[in-house]
């Protein structure tokens, strides 16, 4: 039988494995997808309900009000901001805007599992560069991996799933070495959780380097993972290209209004982020007291470098009532959530060691 062939790149895509979900009716803590453990604020739910009245209409295609609010919040020109259905989608649009078939895209690995998929779908060739044993990105090795065929370098900071953030001097050296016609994507999905003072100010970096794009999201710190709103910040010319490559009417009206309401409630939401940051410190300290060697985390998750025992650990955690995210043969990522969830997790890590 004659069949429509899939693109070889698509037939061989690694599957994006979503974090395990809590079965209906079961009681478990979901620490598998780096979500915000807090339910939406009442003001945000009210904005969502109001917006629901208008869903017979297409949304504002350019998310004008939200784009202006994001730009004002960041102190950039609205022409520099491009919204999309989560920053994963925005990354696809960024790559589609700049990458030609067979170009190379350098990215860290192990890192965000959406990267190899986005690179392959953009017809590019991925050049994964191993993350260091301590969970930090190896930026000198990434700079060294850049060739005349490289069109983009993806920098995940903090790195999902290992946790550390890139330091300002490391990024400065990378940008000095990478040619100006190679895009450097700073994926800052967890920037609000960073407390390390030595990290770069991405917007200042962008002001200095026209080849930089910054990706941010409302999914994590702002707790809107379910509504799919993220954005890129770039120079206006690149931003226009990314916008042109974007799905028309991507961000729903409900998503736009929820993100706007969240920006208005920024202070309140950042207090919640601080709670998670403190819980992260408790989780890391608890693990280290038990003798675990875990990387510092600047995000809302911690990394257990369990190697071959990753899957077995995840099963054990599930039995105890916490869902975590195993990366087979590599390690386990545990999102930081409720204090009660930390307590259960630490019981599992304690007994697993023995
Ligand atoms: C969660 C995450 C994103 C953002 O995902 P959304 O599509 O905005 O929900 C982007 N990059 C990394 C590294 C992430 O972990």
UniProtKB/TrEMBL annotation:
| Pfam families given in the database record | Aminotran_1_2
Superkingdom to which the source organism belongs: Bacteria
Record's keyword annotation contains Transferase:
yes
Residues found modified as N6-(pyridoxal phosphate)lysine: 220
MF terms from GO for this chain are:
aromatic-amino-acid transaminase activity; histidinol-phosphate transaminase activity; pyridoxal phosphate binding
Q: Which Gene3D superfamilies match?
A: Aspartate Aminotransferase, domain 1, Type I PLP-dependent aspartate aminotransferase-like (Major domain)
Q: Which residues form a coiled coil?
A: none
InterPro entries to which the protein is assigned, alphabetical: Aminotrans_II_pyridoxalP_BS, Aminotransferase_I/II_large, ArAT, HisP_aminotrans, HistidinolP_aminotransfase, PyrdxlP-dep_Trfase, PyrdxlP-dep_Trfase_major, PyrdxlP-dep_Trfase_small
This protein's cofactor list reads: pyridoxal 5'-phosphate
Say if the entry is tagged with keyword Cell cycle. no
GO terms under biological process = L-histidine biosynthetic process
Note the subunit structure.
Homodimer.
The entry's family comment says: Belongs to the class-II pyridoxal-phosphate-dependent aminotransferase family.
- What is this protein identified as? Aromatic amino acid aminotransferase
């Amino acid at each position: 039988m004659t069949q429509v062939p899939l693109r070889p790149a698509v037939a061989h895509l690694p599957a994006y494995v979503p974090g395990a979900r809590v079965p209906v009716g079961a009681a478990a803590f979901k620490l598998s997808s780096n979500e915000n453990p807090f339910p939406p604020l009442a003001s945000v739910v009210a904005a969502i309900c109001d917006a629901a009245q208008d869903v017979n209409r297409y949304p504002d295609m350019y998310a004008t009000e939200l784009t202006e609010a994001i730009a004002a919040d960041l102190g950039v020109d609205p022409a520099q901001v491009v919204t999309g259905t989560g920053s994963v989608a925005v990354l696809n649009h960024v790559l589609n805007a700049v990458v030609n078939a067979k170009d190379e895209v350098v990215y860290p690995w192990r890192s965000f599992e959406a990267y190899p998929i986005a690179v392959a779908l953009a017809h590019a060739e991925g050049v994964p560069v191993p993350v260091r044993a301590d969970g930090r990105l190896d930026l000198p090795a990434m700079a060294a991996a850049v060739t005349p065929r490289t069109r983009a370098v993806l920098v995940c900071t903090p790195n999902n799933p290992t946790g550390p953030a890139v330091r300002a001097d490391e990024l400065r050296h990378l940008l000095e070495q990478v040619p100006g016609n190679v895009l450097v994507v700073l994926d800052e999905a967890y920037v609000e959780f960073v407390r390390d003072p030595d990290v770069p100010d991405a917007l200042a970096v962008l002001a200095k380097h026209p080849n930089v794009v910054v990706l941010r999201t409302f999914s994590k710190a702002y707790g809107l993972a379910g509504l799919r709103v993220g954005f890129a910040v770039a120079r206006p010319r690149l931003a226009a290209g990314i916008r042109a490559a974007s799905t028309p009417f991507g961000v729903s009206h409900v998503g736009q209004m929820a993100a706007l309401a969240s920006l208005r409630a920024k202070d309140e939401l950042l207090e919640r982020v601080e709670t998670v940051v403190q819980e992260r410190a408790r989780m890391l300290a608890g693990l280290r007291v038990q003798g675990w060697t875990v990387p510092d985390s600047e995000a809302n998750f911690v990394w257990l470098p369990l190697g071959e025992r990753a899957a077995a650990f995840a099963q054990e955690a599930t039995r105890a009532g916490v869902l975590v995210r195993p990366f087979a043969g590599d390690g386990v990522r545990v999102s930081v959530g409720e204090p009660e969830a930390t307590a259960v997790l630490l019981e599992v890590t304690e007994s697993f060691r023995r």
